[in-house]
Amino acid sequence: MEKSIQVLEREVVEEFALFPEWMDKYEYLIEIGKSLPMIQEGNKTEENLIKGCQSRVWLHCQMEDGRLQFSADSDAIITKGIIALLIRVYNNRRPDEILSSDFGFIREIGLQENLTPTRANGLVSMIDRIRAYATQNQ
Amino acid sequence: MNREILNQAVEEIRKQVPALGRTVYGKPLVYLDNAATAQKPQSVLDRVHQMNAGVNGNVHRAVHRLSEETTLWYEEARDAVKDLIGAAERAEVIFTSGTTAAINTVAYAWSSRFLKAGDVVLVSQAEHHSNIVPWQLACERAGATLRVLPVDESGQWRMDLLPQLLDERVRMVAVSHISNVLGLVNPIQEMIRQAHAVGACVLIDGAQGIVHGQVDVQALDCDFYVFSGHKLYAETGTGILYGKRRWLEAMPPFLGGGDMVDTVTFEKTTYAPLPLKFEAGTGNFIGAASLAPAIAFARSLTTPTLEENQQEIIQYLNEELRRIEGLQIYGEGPNKIPLFSFSVAGCNHGDIATLLDKLGIAVRSGLMCCEPLISSFGHTGLVRASFAPYNTLAEAEALVQGLHRVVRMLR
Ligand SMILES: Cc1ncc(COP(=O)(O)O)c(C=O)c1O
């Protein structure tokens, strides 16, 4: 049985809770960043570039069998970790599933408050982009 | 000198600066972003509080006691600045909201009278955006062109190119005393001499320069010298435009409004004498009043002991930063201040700064308002650690240790 988005979100929150120190949380985030489904060079287009981020982030999305497939990249590994985390939860899902999430788990990890405002804005922009892809493909 | 003595001297200073005692993420703060803004001593905080709590009458306006007292503090600050930079007279010291406002004042008012079509403004490759964009705007208005003095690979001005770059068409040379990225004290004395030889006017962006070393505007013979209060331990939103009287007299006002006028009729207005001619509207009189204690504090930091401590920090970082594999320092030479901008191969500048922050170490990352320079190095940003005399050698060590750890994580 496929896990629901909500279950995956819970898993991520619990994983991060295992690390009381911020440095360890970041270490983990970096590790996740290294597993990011890499975007093809040809998809690093202006359109896929997410505005509002301190570092450059590209997020590509395509529909396959009614499910959204994401790939991404960034100059910065921490940003890669964040986007990889989002992709881990929202990849290979139907648009309605994605739209049913409130993306609140990010706040629960405490990541948002811990990011510099520019990075936090970047995070919001990434979430907005995932939502927008889901809405367009509904 | 003995390390104990040096540490003790720094600790004495640190006690006066409350922000340095705070923690971030449960770790002691290591504040290494002094080139962006400096932490303020208690004397400055007290002055601001005292002004707000008990004085606060609008400056230069009324005859009542509060306004008089404000005016006294305001003008006392002007005297303190005049003494600090060695201006010939207090009328040459104009209060602005910062370096940016001061440069814009000159770029607008001076240029409107003295910059003509076909003229040239010379800036260096290492200028802050504040000393580039106002001149681009001025050049656009006048039909003049902007010319750039390059730096060599260690960040030093290419003075050898001056004979080609400095001709009679150059009317203004606008350059920094110390670049906020490279941390090198530039040969401004020589630049001023050569610029004057072709009849050009010289503006020195002293935002960093005023903090690191003595400035004597008369000995330098610069036409304008500008800086911000907040980098010199004073309240934010304060700044200084020093200009030679003959230029300030000849320039039209920049902003029009209250305080800068003599008589106003709908047909014609005459302007107030200097310095008020360039101080339209209610100035930041509370912030300005903090300049006197800030300058007193800055002066107290120029002891041989604290100077030696800073030299040791420079030497330590020069040696230890290089041990980090792939680390490259931008800005090298004997004229270095304790400000180090660097890249680390394979690591993003923003990632480095984010992780250092979690260790309690505050550094700057990114383009640092110097995009042309940093782009020319082939980077989208650098990391910068900038020290003040209140920083300890132990903090430099914490930075190096932190970097080793962070780089290991990122690779
Ligand atoms: C060399 C230099 N010039 C200009 C500025 C601009 O100063 P402010 O933002 O205080 O106007 C700075 C500050 O970052 C600087 O370092």
List keywords for this structure.
heterodimer; A: 138 residues; mainly alpha; Sufe protein. Chain: A; two-stranded antiparallel sheet; 2 strands; B: 411 residues; alpha/beta; Aspartate Aminotransferase, domain 1; Aspartate Aminotransferase, domain 2; 2 domains; 4-stranded antiparallel β-sheet; 15 helices; 40% helix; binds pyridoxal-5'-phosphate
How is this structure best described in words?
The complex is a heterodimer of chains A (138) and B (411). Chain A is mainly alpha-helical and 138 residues long. Chain A has a single domain, classed as Sufe protein. Chain: A. Chain A contains seven helices and two strands, in the order H-H-E-E-H-H-H-H-H. Chain A has a two-stranded antiparallel sheet with strand order 1-2. In chain A, strand 1 and strand 2 form a beta hairpin. In chain A, helix 2 crosses helix 3. Chain A is globular. The two termini of chain A are 23 Å apart. The mean pLDDT of chain A is 87. Chain B has 411 residues and is an alpha/beta fold. Chain B has two domains: 137 residues, Aspartate Aminotransferase, domain 1 (Alpha-Beta Complex), CATH 3.90.1150; 253 residues, Type I PLP-dependent aspartate aminotransferase-like (Major domain) (Aspartate Aminotransferase, domain 2), CATH 3.40.640. In chain B, the strands form five sheets. A seven-stranded mixed sheet of chain B has the order 4-10-9-8-7-5-6, sandwiched between helices. In chain B, strand 11 and strand 12 form a beta hairpin. In chain B, helix 1 crosses helix 12 and helix 3 runs parallel beside helix 11. At the A-B interface, helix 2 and helix 3 of A face helix 13 of B. Bound molecules: pyridoxal-5'-phosphate. Pyridoxal-5'-phosphate (PLP) binds next to helix 4 of chain B. Pyridoxal-5'-phosphate binds next to helix 4 of chain B.
